[in-house]
């Protein structure tokens, strides 16, 4: 199908895409656009509240088939700009039953809930990190060792025939 026509051709061969592949892609996009363009018929769609409309079922079928991912690909791929108007028209038809206010409120509600969950997760991680830091502090010995280290300076002789031994604190 359409996905196969796009993915079977490697990116470097896209310029040499067959004319029939281009026609196939355009025809499938036009078919999807025309199917989504069919207006709802209230007499045919008298279902129980909560039933999915024909339009919603078509959208679900497009999602299951992977067409929504393909549309995202066509909309974002630099080399596929020739399909931009078809994709834009399909996307506008996908959202035709929703009002902009409903879509904006839905997006904010989801983003707000996700933000709240993220904040709670971060706070829990911070509390756990503080508890681990306190536990590590309690495990350390309270008395600090003042021994910084001893170094042998080879080639420099002290009194006698031995090398110089130098004592130095780590802070220096």
UniProtKB/TrEMBL annotation:
Keywords from the UniProt entry: Cell cycle, Nucleus
Swiss-Prot/TrEMBL GO biological process terms: DNA repair; DNA replication checkpoint signaling; replication fork arrest
Major subcellular site: nucleus
Keyword Cell cycle carried by entry: yes
Keyword Cell cycle part of the UniProt annotation: yes
Occurrences of domain Timeless N-terminal (ranges): 12-152
Cleavable signal peptide: none
InterPro entries: Timeless, Timeless_N
Location(s) in or outside the cell: Nucleus
GO cellular component, one term: replication fork protection complex
Top-rank taxon, per record: Eukaryota
GO molecular function: DNA binding
Matches recorded under Pfam families: TIMELESS
Protein name: TIM protein
